[in-house]
Amino acid sequence: VFQVTIHGRGGQGVVTAAEVLAGAAFAAGRYAQALPSFGAERMGAPVESRCRIDTAPIVTHQSAGAVDAALVQDATLLGALDLGLAGASLVILNTARTLAEVRSSCPDLPADRTVTVPADAIVAEHLGLPKPSIAMLGALAALVDIVTLDALCEVVAQRFPAAVADGNVAAAVAAHHWVAGGGRG
Amino acid sequence: VAEVVEGSRAVARVVALCRPQVVSAYPISPQTHIVEALAGAVGSGRLAGCEYVNAESELGAMSVAIGASAGGVRTYTATASQGLLAMVEAVYNAAGLNLPIVMTVANRALGAPLNIWNDQSDSLSQRDSGWLQLYAADVQEAADLHVQAYAVAERVSLPVMVCLDGFVLTHASEVVELPTQEQVDAFLPPFEPAWRLDVDRPTTIGTMAGPDSFTEARFLQFERQVAAADVVADVAARFAARFARASGGLVHRLAEPPGAGAPGPDETVVVAMGSVLGTLRVVADELRAAGTPVRLVGVCSYRPFPADALRAAVGDAGRIVVVDRAVSPGIGGVLAQDVRRVVDDGTARVRCVVAGLGGRDVTERSLRAAIVAGVAGELAPLTWLDLDRDLIGRAAAR
């Protein structure tokens, strides 16, 4: 089983991102489950969601588990909460800063397994909304083989109204290219 | 066609396929997505022939449901937690009046302290209300149980609660296969009430029953619910034949060795209800693969309580570990009490593990440790999983 955790704040699309990822993995012939963990239900509160992807049916309902990839949509969470990133095989962090700069205040971030992507700037340009979740999935698709950019874009196109879908697809493609092209990390 | 669907959306879509004529509800987390989706289906015309009543309270929602059902139409409502407590007076009346209402309970803890997260204290507090209670293990079963619930309710003239764990199932997206309208129509014919309130032929319902007849009314209610067990099993069997998947029924015998008979004295059987069954399945399969003789039995029909099916499923198992998602202060786990009543034979083989109260994650790791202790005969009669002794110490020191 491949497990992805998504960390962000209420309103950023954390829950939606896990559902979109599950849908894209399912479209590619895998079993998938999206399991959100809500805190207080309000904008800005920390929210976490977990997506499991497997070749066999997924029956567990625990929130815990290994982390093959962690997507951190909001870098301000890093100092405020223990996101369990030390054990993650891969961390994708939404930040315009360099990894060295971020690590100076967050030494727990694994130096050799963290990739940064300026998703806020990317969605500002392509989407015009402060919702980096789909762009982060685009970055993920560049780094792991459990989901493809095409499958993600297809689910996004089905799920959102045309204008929002187009902006998110463009943002996902841009984030994918940023990471695939080496970006910074 | 299989698809990935959020639990609440799956329930709402299947409820709509059951063609309810009145949906009456008051929103409360984590039930909200279900009634929002149904309100949308009625508002957009996708659910035709249905009146959606946005009630002023939960007591109002159940009272509307009672009126609608007594008027002879298929009726639906949903609630959770404090919302269920706020409707309790009418909940008992719906059962006493033999009305086949179906209600979804998105299981959530009861306050105080305030908590919006999952355990099963809310629906289990209505154990003695006279409603049937079916518990879903996953999103697929949550969807399927609603079709079965109407079939059972209308056959036995009793209301049915379909219980699914709040957030863990209501907000989880899983791979499910939802039936088509044609399939549901074929399985669930239009509701034809045995009687209805009718202005042209006036009758009175809910009259006073004095000491001369109240005991008999309760006796009949008891007998009716006990007899409903066969109907729950029959509807699940018909469903399995029609839809080619096992959902609902009295108990689920999970993690069984192929071709095995009833459990013997060397074996341990774990008993639980709801979404924790999937997590337990992972643990039990791992333990069995490593040579530990563990089986898993899921209770789907909590009321009527499946005494015979449960006795058969636990057989002569030397140890029975009940994982309980609700606790009765002063005695212990709620499910464990019923299991003890049915299977205890002076051997004191039942152990109760209270787990996952107020949304605490029930992890495979903690369950594994508890089961291993149970197999070894080292579990106390009542164990609180993952109890934070430091926190209790700090609270006591204040």
Tell me briefly what this model is.
Chain A has helices at 14-27, 77-80, 99-105, 119-126, 133-143, 149-159, 162-180; strands at residues 2-9, 31-37, 46-54, 69-72, 91-94, 114-117.
How would you describe this structure in keywords?
heterodimer, A: 185 residues, alpha/beta, six-stranded mixed β-sheet, 7 helices, globular, B: 398 residues, seven-stranded mixed β-sheet, 14 helices
| Poorly predicted runs of chain A | none
Q: Give the largest chain-chain interface (CB within 8 Å).
A: A-B, 24 and 28 residues
Q: Sum up the overall morphology of chain A in one term.
A: globular
Radius of gyration of chain B: 21 Å
Q: What coarse outline of chain B follows from CA principal-axis ratios?
A: globular
Distance between the termini of chain B: 57 Å
Label the structural class of chain A: alpha/beta
Give the N-to-C terminal Cα separation of chain A.
26 Å
Describe this structure in words.
The complex is a heterodimer of chains A (185) and B (398). Helix content of chain A is 40%, strand content 19%. By secondary structure, chain A is an alpha/beta fold. A 6-stranded mixed sheet of chain A has the order 2-3-1-4-5-6. In chain A, strand 5, helix 3 (99-105) and strand 6 (114-117) form a beta-alpha-beta unit. Chain A is globular, with a radius of gyration of 15 Å. The N and C termini of chain B lie far apart (57 Å). In chain B, the strands form 4 sheets. Chain B has a 7-stranded mixed sheet, sandwiched between helices. A 6-stranded mixed sheet of chain B has the order 9-11-10-13-16-17, with helices on both faces. In chain B, helix 2 links the parallel strand 2 (22-25) and strand 3 (51-54). Chain B is α/β, with parallel strands linked by helices. Classes of the chains: A alpha/beta (185), B alpha/beta (398). The A-B interface holds A 15, 18-19, 22-23, 26, 31-38, 41, 57-65 and B 2-4, 6, 29, 116-117, 138, 165, 167-169, 171-175, 275-276, 278-279, 281-282, 361-365.
